[in-house]
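Lab notebook, bench 4. We co-purified these components, and the gel suggests they stay together. Before we commit to crystallization screens, I want a quick structural picture of the whole thing.
Request: model the full complex, all chains together.
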Amino acid sequence: MSETMLLIAGRSSKQGTSLNVGKLKDEYRDVTSTVEMNALDMERLGLKEGDKVRLRSPIGETVVHCKPRKPEDLPAGMLFIAYGPPSSQLMAGDTAGTGMPISKNFRVEVLRETS
Amino acid sequence: MAEAAKEAVKTAPENTKLVENATCTFCGCVCDDMNLTVDLDNHRITKAQNACVLGRAWFTEHKLEKRPFALIDGKEATTAEGVEVAAQILANAKFPITYGLSDTTCEAQRQAVAIADMIGGCLDTTTSVCHGPSGIAFEGVGESTASLGEIKNRADLVVFWGGNPAEAHPRLFTRYALMPKGMFVPNGKKDRTAVLIDVRRTASTPVADIFIQIKPGKDFEVLWALRALVKGRKIGADIEEETGVKLEVLEDLVQRMKSCRFGAFLFGMGLTMTRGRHFNSGALLALASDLNAFTHFVAKPVRGHGNVTGADNVVSWSTGFPFGMSFARGYPRFNPGEFTTVDTLSRGDADAALIIASDPASNFPKAAIEHLKRIPTILLDPRESVTGQIAKVAFTTATYGINTTGTVYRMDDVPITLRPAFESPYPSDEEVLIAIKNRVRELLAEQHRLGSPKVAQKVA
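Here is the predicted assembly.
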């Protein structure tokens, strides 16, 4: 199973509260290691909540857990992840002369992790 | 004293302090109406009245952990020992960078600017990976601006673009821009129309009267189409195919924007972190300017960290530029893409880093993090972080707003003085930076006396 989707990294309430508990603590790690996916996409790909998927970009890859979102909330082919060390692994360093790397709306390959 | 606070005083247990109108520095809203209940025995804030979910976590999760004052190569050290090693690194570096600064006071930021100036380094803040593109757009397009107080009291149309305030800035809705009753909007939200424009539905969507969902990466196209419609130009119905938005939806929005009494764009990183970057922000700022031919319209970037706006202000008034600048030639130069931190790290230019109140090792692109691991890094941070794990010297400092006073700027450039809850055994960022600055000055003077060519270049 492999499919290309659009990844959006952003903030979430849980990310905000958990970083106050500690960025090296489990809660923050869990929040930033969970990718939200359109529920119908998950169904089509045979994924259940909590299953591991590998996200791969031309820069790097990371393994995260997936969580369904209602199709009306997250369009098909779109992923959302809270900013953190896992999303950094996928970001390119090029800033096109602005200082800002592309941190939202970039393509990643989604692969199911078997182990 | 407010009634609720008076009641809290009556019922407070012994050795409890109440801090009225304290300021939350978790996000750029910088709400200064916090009433804190402080347990002085345990050095904990047990209650943060008026705080949002993020503010409550900011205050109540804060605890004085028993941590070393400094770590040098992972080994415990005193602050003074850390200062010596840090100063040696900075004074001897050929391409030092200073970065972070969005979660500390303006007083500390001033010291960081002074150090970067002395060592002839790059100076950049987290703005470069936040609203840096909007900063670039301000220089090209200008900014039709307002304080949050003006928006609260006057705005009858608020357009949130590319952001999710319900999760990232909860009180932007409830305290400043949507719910509160204002002088010219006496019924609060009933007197306002809220529009939300985003690529997905979020927790903010139910708050909006109108939600416009656009295709990812098509913000610029939508903004340019709106500009054309505002100016009376014709747009084809095929705009829907390009952007995902029907022409009549855009026409309705234009009609609302032109006919409101006071309109406000509050825009987030959905514009700055995607393809187009400063062009997206610039298009929105230009649209706000265009609308002033018909009504009063303003645009404000919604800022993330508690004093990232202060960093913009301090670096601007000190150097003439807001971020992404270099002192390498002995005078300030501004060039995002060259002097910004993601670039100096990803290219492998920097040979030493001074990081203040930030965690780039956690959220920078992979190539930048890899280089940060290769060079000596000095970190000032109250809490443990990923950057702390790779730092050569890591100082534990007091938390601004909770343990130290100082000045911060709200996202609308309004400066606010902090009221701390209790003291910390750790020094403030400002104190550590002053100590580093003084020692760097001595080392550079010594190098100058000995005729070091590097110092000669810096002094020249």
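The first helix of chain B runs from residue 3 to 11. Worth comparing against the SEC data before the next meeting. Residues 313 and 460 of chain B are 27 Å apart (CA to CA).
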